[in-house]
Amino acid sequence: MKTYGVVLAGGVGARLGLSVPKQMVKVAGKTILEHTVAAFDSHPLIDEVIVMITAGWTERVATLLGNRFTKLTLILEGGVTRNETTRRVLEALDTTEAKVLLHDAVRPLVDERIITDCIQALNHHEAVDVVIPSSDTVVMVDDDEVITRIPDRSRVRRGQTPQAFKLSTLRSAYARAIEDPYFHATDDCGVVVRYLPDVEVKCVLGSENNIKVTHPVDLTIADKLFQLATQAAPAKSFEQLAAELAGKVIVVLGGSYGIGAEISRIAKTAGGTVVAHGRSSTGLHVQDLGAIETALNAVRNDHGRIDAVVLTAGVLKVGPLANTSPDEINQSIAVNYTAAVNVARAAYPHLAATGGHLLLFTSSSYTRGRENYALYSSSKAAVVNLTQALSEEWASDGIKVNVVNPERTDTPMRHNAFGEEPAGTLLSAEQVAQASLDVITSDLTGIVVDVRRSNPA
Known about the structure:
The chain is of the alpha/beta class. The chain has helices at 32-41, 58-65, 82-92, 112-121, 167-178, 188-195, 216-228, 238-245, 258-269, 289-303, 326-354, 374-393, 412-418, 429-440, and strands at residues 3-9, 26-27, 30-31, 48-53, 72-77, 99-104, 127-133, 140-141, 147-149, 157-166, 201-205, 230-232, 249-253, 273-277, 308-311, 357-361, 400-406, 409-410, 427-428, 448-451. Helix 13 (412-418) links the parallel strand 18 and strand 19.
């Protein structure tokens, strides 16, 4: 039985005050529609993706989405109402039975777990809704805005999407609904509940992050949620890593000790070609654009290619900004941020030639500045923004750009700042290095990759 992910993109953006459909607004560097389509296209249990778009926008959407989404098979005009759009979906599916997930295009933060739960629930149920508990009291009112009833909040849920159905069930519900001259519904589970009362609609848990972009403030919230989005590294066995690194050339900047040294060691052991530079080992200063360009050109001349550039260098000066000297300020910004900019500039032509990978590093403090970490935290926040921007700028060149966000790690830099810390409270440099290599041998891009002590890596 096939599983279809149907993205319902028929909105016009009236409540956002826009002249374009709201799903065509950019959030976190991409249109809302692109984010949503990507969520379904990348899901391993989805077979085909269909986009139902606002009338008059099919050609522009086809151009926007291009051939980047391998499971996208149809882009069709939606109807004037949600119900009419669903009927067009039913007409387009030329099979007798399938699993169908209908999802609002303007919920771009739907995650893999929610989609999986919907698909699996259809193994035992004919209709599925995604809901979350209501943290607010819900009141029922009459025409005069007078409360008539207050439902028990423990039984109240807020509906989200996807809504998932066996195709035959949804067709049957709409066949009965069409016969009703007063038919109107704002969602498809409501159609099943009303016209097929004997069919149970199973609820699965949604997410507070699975917001619907409806009002202007939602754009800001969605953008921030994307900015803070992280995921774990895709763990690989040593054999998988060795296969991925065969014939690959990796340049590690900041490779004298700590995480950089471990990345170099593991990659070499797995059969990759590694060239490591560091201030204390080769005298290379990562903030020096000319020196970086010379170093990368030498690697390209010696080995014919560069498949990944990894920048692990950093400096951590703990203390109040008011007590920090001008030289310390300049060094902190130069090593923790300017270096990332210059390494990216120097690496671009080499990585464009191979469709390679740029890997940067941030800190958990990037999400919110911390007392006595002002320069470090703000620089690391800038590195995250740089990563996300470059991942989009360089996507057409096939370059992947990611940033690793490790938990507190046992490195010389940390020892210098904090001294000895309790055993078992820190990640090892080897764990972070392994996760970093898992990332640069993946197709991830634009991601903040969390590395935590609980990770297998």
